[in-house]
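Aim 2, interim progress: modelling of the calcium ion-bound target.
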Amino acid sequence: MTHADADVAEAEQQADAQTVTTTPAVVRLNPDDNVLVAARRVTAGTELPSVGLKCRDDIPAGHKVAARAVAEGEAVRKYGQIIGFATQDIAEGQHVHSHNCGMGDFERDYDHGVEARPTEYVPEPQRATFQGIVRPDGQVATRNYIGVLTTVNCSATVARAVASAFNDAALEAYPNVDGVVAFAHGTGCGMAGSGEGMELLQRTLHGYMMHPNFAGVLLIGLGCEMNQISRIVERFGLERGNSFDYMKIQEAGGTRAAIQDGVERVKAMLPAANEATRQPVPASQIKLALQCGGSDGYSGITANPALGAAVDKLVRHGGTAILSETPEIYGAEHLLTRRAVSREVGEKLLERIRWWEDYTARNSGTMDNNPSPGNKEGGLTTILEKSLGAAAKGGTTRLENVYGYAEPIEGPGFVFMDSPGYDPCSVTGQIASGANVVCFTTGRGSVSGFKPSPSLKLCTNSTTYQRMSEDMDINCGPVLDEGVSVEEMGDRIFDLVLRTASGEQSCSEALDFGDNEFVPWQIGAVM
Amino acid sequence: MTHADADVAEAEQQADAQTVTTTPAVVRLNPDDNVLVAARRVTAGTELPSVGLKCRDDIPAGHKVAARAVAEGEAVRKYGQIIGFATQDIAEGQHVHSHNCGMGDFERDYDHGVEARPTEYVPEPQRATFQGIVRPDGQVATRNYIGVLTTVNCSATVARAVASAFNDAALEAYPNVDGVVAFAHGTGCGMAGSGEGMELLQRTLHGYMMHPNFAGVLLIGLGCEMNQISRIVERFGLERGNSFDYMKIQEAGGTRAAIQDGVERVKAMLPAANEATRQPVPASQIKLALQCGGSDGYSGITANPALGAAVDKLVRHGGTAILSETPEIYGAEHLLTRRAVSREVGEKLLERIRWWEDYTARNSGTMDNNPSPGNKEGGLTTILEKSLGAAAKGGTTRLENVYGYAEPIEGPGFVFMDSPGYDPCSVTGQIASGANVVCFTTGRGSVSGFKPSPSLKLCTNSTTYQRMSEDMDINCGPVLDEGVSVEEMGDRIFDLVLRTASGEQSCSEALDFGDNEFVPWQIGAVM
Ligand SMILES: [Ca+2]
Ligand SMILES: [Ca+2]
Ligand SMILES: [Ca+2]
Ligand SMILES: [Ca+2]
Ligand SMILES: [Ca+2]
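Predicted structure of the complex, ligand included:
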């Protein structure tokens, strides 16, 4: 949120500097749009034969040009969605910005469900498949890990020592096990024993315990922490078995004994874990976490809309996609309530928005719901348009449900899970909710990975992609510099998601990320 | 804080169960005390020849017995400090509790400085020494590490990969270097760019950078995070050199390049780091962090007062001791303001107390300033007495100053640093403030360690000590079960602190703790 100003200003500079004349001058983000986005500065009078358009005004990079005439009062559409209304008649080829486009009454009109179109499902026989691991409870895994979870920071060192006993050599006899991973974190004590903070932490831990990508989970506590194992076990009705076990360091008799004990308990899980095999399953078993981090001025033009196209396709194939990062959609919640499947679902989102206003206010912060001067210079006319740059990841299908952080997500379809925008914290919640693949768009070049689910980096521009190619799974820059359509890029992302879900290694897995990015959302006083 | 009720109730049970008849029945916590504490239930009529006393009442375990007659209105002293006033005449051997002891007007009377006695320093030639490492700036180190710090969670994996390149084999040529340690954490972005949260994080990172126990520090950022390296460098006037360097992953060109780059930068620090040698330095160079975690009903009777005796001795030798954990002293701040060297110092503490009341209130929590029914059953008569169980670690010398979390502490003498009670968060602040040894009292058996400073575990009871002997550095149980005096136990702790500061390995170092316990205090909304 707070990055946006700098990003947009920078994007304009970058776009200005992009002098490769073979790149297309304008980009169409969605077939329904009546505006196009200038990929670089286009001067008045320029003919754009590829889109059958002649520019009547100078269009700065990142700004909008009318693809056809728009009458006064008519909706202006970008990303296939309303970003405002024409405040005067706009001719084809004119610059569209604050002088001829505004919010109108739209701002306070949530219009629950008015744009919730029925999903056009792909007929069952034509649906895509991938090679997944079907768990006994019917959930489908994309990876096969054993997790060593911690109730509290005080058990972090023991948990890491247990996991590190299972290096490649130790797992040689268990080729179907992807690894043993410890999930350390900084909280679990010095906090209230009940209330929002404890609720989120327990829900997150439980979500990981239940995640299909774990064949087994060992939960390690110290013994005297506020976040007691006994309460977690009781609350969620957990029982020790092949796939879940727990232990306390104080009961084990100290660090060394606890490590030995933990290693034995993990060893006992390995034979059953190794029996996991992949089989063809429908793409509807994908639960895709949508995330952006290290955004830049290209994010809203290339990677995010391309991911949105992939999400629309995934939803038509019966899959689930999870948009999050509530602060990033703030001020544009209307766009999601209009896509909500029901008033009830729309109201759930608005309840979260109100919660965030209170959360930031009581922490001496604010939610910003205006495009800044920097945003406007960069071509963003309304707050809807600004937030859509992030929300474009979510495509255009109807909003099926709204979930709290780390709540189990059933699917199918496009859903929203409340979370901060902060990457590790947001993705931790998405994985706790059941996401089995992550798509992460980045312009500056975020490096991260989130075991137990593979995370794909979708790069917004070719410059960053080339500089950090070992970290980036796919380059969405060609939408700008090779004229690849957003839909075509969406198809490439969809295919990559299926291959990755089938076991193909992502860049962040090759680099062994995911052991340090478990960051449960910490709310409340540290005491 | 919230542990106390359960702890005290449990302590009574444990004390009741303690049937070894050779143990002394009562314990004197301080020579100035006019009450003694029953180590186990003592029945009316029991003669206690070791203290020249006959019990007139039944004294439950953990409760107090009058060591001499106390007149109505006279102060009742435990830990050498006022815990209340006699509300009626009390005879020698009588039970002292709510029926004859209360707070009086003391409660709202901060009486700044009335008990601030001048420190009786040990004459210079007689002062203790240890083998320390004198840094070019005159600071004295107790260990010699290289630290790999992170601005944000997004650089955690790279930082850990850099540090893990320096295993024992890689450091063979640098025998004077204790190790290369990564300090990962969960925050650094998705937060306000200024204000309290960012202030604490930057202060903590800077405190670690300046810590004498690091021969060198490499700070690794991602590049686009809110907690920008450039701002840290500018704010604190840092310059690259032999002992400080920094880098960004996005500038390095991705994960693999960043790891290689980081490894080279650490390698460049090793030759100078290896030149560190130990030499005799005065004990005044000790900055001792005081901490308790996993407390039990014995904490206030054995380990905490024994540590307090060691602190009094350290202060007389010119050293510095840092009490923290503000919620643990809440309601007993009067005891510290009365010891304050000036009204100004006392007011600083009260300002922090008021801040905590606001902090917990705005996070829907409360500070509790009454001993609970469970506390009272366990023998704790007033809130002063309850909080003194924790504050006893700080001994009896005057309070020289009050610091914010992670603020640089100059010393000498007994000081207070504001922090939560939560162990890893509190100790992280103490080390950022400059603590070069940690003394950590525990009854339940906390396991932890805090690189770059050695951390000693002081166990409150022999049962836990025996069960977790590999984790516990010293057993304070003999105060109860062998009649070892609190002063004598304090001497043992003081000697152990000096040996540890000189390089003797603590239990937590032998177990290689300290790579996962860096937990900066996170305040404010995660966005
Ligand atoms: Ca994000
Ligand atoms: Ca691995
Ligand atoms: Ca503590
Ligand atoms: Ca002595
Ligand atoms: Ca080591």
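Chain B touches chain A through 71 residues (CB under 8 Å). The longest strand of chain B covers residues 214-221.
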